[in-house]
């Protein structure tokens, strides 16, 4: 008996009957301009309408009452807020993206029901399974030939994992190209824009010393379990308190990026905690701080915080819980940078399944008076508790510090270093670097292109700077 899978699920009690309507192509509307005195008309454009699928089904219950429960299960399964995968048993290599449309009138006879489900596909195309191609480097060229057997163009996605620094990256077809970055002329010089000063995976507290420069009382003990910094003893205090560790840079830096990965989550509404880092100059003066904290005593609500300067005279530019509690159960990045007199604070939650940042927030502050322009010399990390409230689950997961080199007009910065991963998605017009949006690196003349029907040769330039994987899905009109 034939049925279908929707949103990755199926119901054994549902059988598809004869008479289903699956048109061979989506409705096409031709807009024609007719001019007096001229035969026929001028084809202005073509519009593709949504695709409608009508599927007659038969369902069975143990009795009439049970049939009503089966109908409720059917509604829970099929009524969704957005299109989901729809696959019919008799054509398992083709995928529709559909929502149910209109209602479903059953003809009920004892424990049996019969009716027609109307599916609406906002995306009118029919898709095949995802295909993956590795664009191999043969020591000279890095090319591949992609075969699109669908009846419509399709948009590929490329994931490049770099093995060496580069100032640009091209994906070239016979008719179009995508470029990020900029090639270097013979009169220019390649330079690293960012130079790593600290890259600490928090596997050990070696190189870190005790610190007192926090908002509150520094007390207790922080150590590493081999993967992250965590607290073994918060000490005591009536306000914010807890352990803090400090690391000095090999030399002070003027322009910098500091990135600290933290975990901040709660298992009970009365838990309170904060994961923070502070930036200090050589005299232990605070230049700035960031935090992810839960300070609500009767509910779980994470707040992001960013401050430029110290607690007495500084300027807070983030003190926000995000929309719809998006920062609850937080694992992600707190980043604070200063380039010239422009400070930038960034918060990004990390999705371990997709490798992407989400629930992102960026705020800036221009220190026009140069009040907080002393070189960065030290970084402090802190995990805190409040009074006697039970603490959240919180860790310091990673600490990275970059020195930012200000380039001259004859210097071209690298867009990627060894280990960086850049994803270019031609279907969504998106570029990501290590999970973070990177569309700013796109060359002005480059395009997000499609693979036309048939064969397309694709070349990578510079060849061999990255291992490149390409994915695409054939689609039919």
How is this structure best described in words?
β28 (330-339) and β29 form a beta hairpin. The protein folds into three domains: 4-124, Beta Barrel (Elongation Factor Tu (Ef-tu), domain 3); 130-189 and 414-476, Sandwich (Jelly Rolls), CATH 2.60.120.860; 194-404, Jelly Rolls. The protein is mainly β. The chain is built from one helix and 38 strands. Strands 17, 18, 21, 22, 24, 25, 26, 27 and 31 form a nine-stranded mixed β-sheet that branches. The longest helix is centred in the N-terminal third of the chain and has 15 residues, at 64-78. The model has no long low-confidence stretch (mean pLDDT 91). Helices cover 3% and strands 51% of the residues.
Describe the structure concisely for a colleague.
With 477 residues, the protein is mainly β. The protein has one helix at 64-78, and strands at residues 4-6, 14-16, 28-33, 42-48, 51-60, 84-88, 96-100, 107-109, 112-121, 126-135, 143-148, 157-162, 168-172, 177-181, 189-191, 194-200, 209-210, 217-218, 221-224, 229-233, 240-242, 244-253, 256-265, 273-280, 286-294, 302-308, 315-320, 330-339, 342-350, 357-366, 376-386, 393-404, 411-413, 421-425, 430-433, 436-437, 454-461, 466-476.
Itemize the secondary structure elements and their pairings:
Layout: E1 4-6, E2 14-16, E3 28-33, E4 42-48, E5 51-60, H1 64-78, E6 84-88, E7 96-100, E8 107-109, E9 112-121, E10 126-135, E11 143-148, E12 157-162, E13 168-172, E14 177-181, E15 189-191, E16 194-200, E17 209-210, E18 217-218, E19 221-224, E20 229-233, E21 240-242, E22 244-253, E23 256-265, E24 273-280, E25 286-294, E26 302-308, E27 315-320, E28 330-339, E29 342-350, E30 357-366, E31 376-386, E32 393-404, E33 411-413, E34 421-425, E35 430-433, E36 436-437, E37 454-461, E38 466-476
Parallel strand pairs: 15-33, 18-21
Antiparallel strand pairs: 1-6, 2-5, 3-4, 5-9, 6-7, 7-9, 8-9, 10-38, 11-37, 12-34, 12-38, 13-14, 13-37, 16-32, 17-22, 19-20, 21-31, 22-31, 23-28, 23-32, 24-25, 24-31, 25-26, 26-27, 28-29, 29-30, 34-35, 35-36
């Amino acid at each position: 008996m034939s049925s279908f899978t929707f949103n990755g699920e199926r119901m054994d009690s549902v059988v598809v009957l004869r008479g289903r309507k699956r048109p061979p192509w989506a409705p096409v509307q031709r807009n024609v301009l007719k001019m007096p005195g001229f035969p026929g008309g001028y084809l202005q454009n073509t519009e593709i309408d949504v695709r409608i699928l009508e599927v007659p089904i038969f369902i069975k219950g143990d009795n009439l009452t049970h049939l009503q429960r089966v109908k409720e299960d059917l509604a829970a399964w099929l009524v969704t807020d957005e299109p989901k995968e729809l696959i019919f048993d008799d054509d398992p290599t083709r995928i529709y993206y559909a929502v149910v449309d209109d209602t479903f009138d059953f003809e009920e006879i004892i424990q049996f029901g019969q009716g027609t489900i109307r599916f609406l596909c906002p995306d009118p195309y029919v898709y095949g399974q995802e295909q993956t191609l590795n664009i191999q480097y043969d020591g000279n060229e890095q090319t591949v030939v992609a075969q699109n057997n669908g009846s419509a163009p399709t948009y590929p996605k490329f994931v490049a994992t770099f093995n060496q620094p580069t100032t640009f990256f091209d994906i070239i077809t016979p008719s179009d190209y995508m470029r990020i970055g900029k090639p270097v002329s013979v009169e220019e010089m390649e330079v690293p824009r960012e130079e790593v000063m600290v890259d600490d995976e928090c596997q050990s507290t070696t190189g870190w010393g005790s610190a007192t420069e926090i908002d509150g009382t520094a007390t207790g003990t922080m150590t590493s379990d081999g993967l992250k910094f965590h607290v073994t003893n918060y000490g005591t205090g009536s306000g914010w308190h807890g352990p803090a560790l400090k690391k000095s840079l090999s030399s002070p830096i003027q322009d910098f990026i500091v990135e600290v990965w933290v975990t901040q989550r709660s298992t009970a509404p009365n838990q309170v905690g904060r994961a923070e880092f502070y930036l200090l100059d050589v005299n232990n003066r605070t230049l700035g701080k960031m935090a992810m904290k839960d300070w609500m005593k009767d509910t779980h609500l994470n707040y992001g915080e960013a401050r430029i300067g110290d607690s007495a005279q500084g300027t807070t530019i983030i003190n926000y819980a995000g929309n719809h509690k998006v920062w609850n159960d937080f694992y992600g990045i707190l980043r604070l940078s200063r380039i010239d007199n422009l400070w930038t604070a960034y918060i990004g939650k990390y999705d371990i399944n997709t490798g992407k940042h989400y629930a992102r927030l960026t705020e800036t502050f221009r220190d026009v008076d140069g009040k907080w322009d002393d070189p960065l010399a030290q970084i402090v990390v802190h995990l805190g508790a409040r009074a006697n409230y039970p603490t959240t689950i919180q860790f310091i997961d990673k600490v990275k510090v970059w020195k930012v080199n200000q380039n001259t007009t004859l210097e071209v910065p690298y867009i990627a270093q060894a280990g960086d991963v850049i994803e270019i998605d031609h279907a969504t017009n998106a570029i990501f670097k290590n999970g973070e949006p990177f569309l700013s690196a796109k060359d002005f003349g480059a395009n997000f292109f499609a693979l036309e029907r048939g064969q397309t040769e694709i070349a990578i330039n510079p060849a061999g700077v990255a291992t490149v994987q390409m994915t695409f899905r054939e689609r039919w009109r």
